[in-house]
Write a structure and sequence with these properties.
Layout (H helix, E strand, L loop, with lengths): L2 H17 L18 H10 L5 H17 L6 H7 L5 H10 L8 H11 L3 H19 L5 H15 L5 H11 L7 H10 L3 H14 L5 H7 L5 H13 L6 H10 L5 H13 L4 H10 L4 H26 L4 H7 L20 H8 L8 H6 L18 H7 L1
Helix pairs in contact: 1-2, 3-5, 4-5, 5-7, 6-7, 7-8, 7-9, 8-9, 9-11, 10-11, 11-13, 12-13, 13-15, 14-15, 15-17, 16-17
């Protein structure tokens, strides 16, 4: 028997398992859906409609878990099959799995689902998934005509009588867009009294990464409803708002590692950067209680190194401020947000401070994180370079 015969028999076993409702589908077979051979995929297609809807839903739930945990699998084919399935749950799952794939062939399928799918959740997922292609278009990685068509359709959705959830996801996707109408749409959503629109506006602000939204994002960092506060924290990270660091450090100090606000704040700080934030992260890692906490902090430290490394390289290039601004269209420069100059007519900083239950202790992070060493997180000047041994420890 040849090796190819063995492969065919193996996939036949998978087909048999899919059609056998009397036993759980073996998890060991899940990786066989990665980068399926042509003849195997044809065989799968031939029996796809014979698989019970419940079995398909469970299969896609497990494939999603695999897709998130294993970066080496390629589930593009099975996910594309899923978005045409009669089951809305399978279609939505297929869309989520396609998020990591940048295949332009998916765009017409997603647009069709957004416009015509009978299921609200599927339409919302399609609107969200199109955001990736708006982002790629802004990076000039897809054709301009394709980008303009996606933006046009998303704008039409927002201005339509479509369900609010779908319109909100369309707004979040448009956050990546530089279209002239997007700014006012984000602002109107932020000014509304609807919490769902407020959340989506913060997502869009973060994706735009434009400093014009700094006051709005900072003001929402202390919102009493966590889902709004969470999106503000994420937006602060995406926008690299250095002026948010003290608040984020306060959140870390006053929460526990198993709380969402702690993990969100740590990750946002890893994106904002700052050489001295490393002191905080290393202290947190030293005091970590669980392996999961240690793994997360190591990822955050790696991301912080990437953030700080890019910042150092830009400084070493000796570029002018104008050149830097052109390079970081979607970033924030602290010089553009001078807290010391916010006086009459700009009370949002004072309001933000008043919203806190207690004033920030300017050296609380020194005492709690830096082992007594004085650390000024709002001033990265005169930073001492880390020793080579420290670098080797982390890598």
């Amino acid at each position: 028997m040849t090796e190819n015969d063995n492969e065919k028999i193996h996939f036949q076993a998978i087909i048999d398992a899919l059609l056998n409702d009397d036993a759980d589908f073996p998890e060991i077979y899940l990786t066989s859906f990665s980068d399926i051979e042509y003849q195997d995929f044809a065989q799968l297609l031939s029996i796809w409609n014979q698989i019970t809807p419940e079995r398909k839903v469970r299969l896609f739930e497990n494939l999603e878990i695999l897709n998130e945990s294993d970066t080496l699998v390629d589930l593009n084919q099975i996910a594309t099959l899923g978005i045409t399935d009669p089951s809305a749950a399978v279609r939505a799952s297929g869309i989520r799995m396609l998020w990591d794939y940048e295949n332009e062939k998916h765009i017409p399928l997603l647009i069709e689902l957004l416009k015509n799918d009978i299921d609200l959740s599927v339409r919302a997922h399609a609107a969200a998934a199109l955001g990736k292609f708006v982002y790629l278009g802004e990076l000039e990685e897809i054709n301009l005509d394709i980008l303009n068509n996606i933006v046009k359709i998303l704008l039409e959705v927002i201005r339509s009588s479509e369900n609010e959830l779908v319109r909100q996801k369309a707004l979040e996707s448009l956050g990546f867009s530089s279209h002239e109408d997007v700014h006012s749409i984000i602002n109107n959503a932020f000014q509304s009294n609807d919490k769902g629109w407020l959340v989506s506006s913060l997502v869009a602000m973060g994706r735009s990464a434009h400093e014009v939204w700094a006051p709005q994002v900072l003001s929402m960092l202390v919102h009493p409803e966590f889902r709004i506060q969470r999106e503000a924290i994420r937006a602060a990270g995406e926008m690299e708002l250095k002026s948010a660091r003290n608040l984020l450090l306060k959140f870390i100090k006053e929460s526990e590692p198993d709380e969402d606000i702690w993990t969100e704040s740590v990750w946002a700080l890893s994106k904002i950067g700052g050489e001295k934030i490393q002191v905080v992260f290393e202290k947190l890692l030293k005091n970590a209680d669980t392996e999961e906490e240690e793994d997360f902090l190591r990822e955050a430290i790696d991301n912080l190194y990437l953030t700080n490394g890019i910042a150092r390289e830009l400084d070493m290039m000796g570029l002018s401020e104008a050149d830097l601004q052109n390079l970081r269209e979607f970033s924030v420069d602290d010089e553009d947000i001078d807290l010391d100059e916010e006086e009459e007519g700009s009370t949002w900083i004072a309001d933000l401070e008043d919203a806190l239950e207690e004033d920030l202790d300017e050296d609380f992070y020194d005492n709690d994180f830096a082992d007594g060493e004085e650390v000024d997180y709002d001033n990265d000047d005169d930073v001492e370079e880390d020793s080579e041994s420290d670098d080797e420890e982390r890598f």
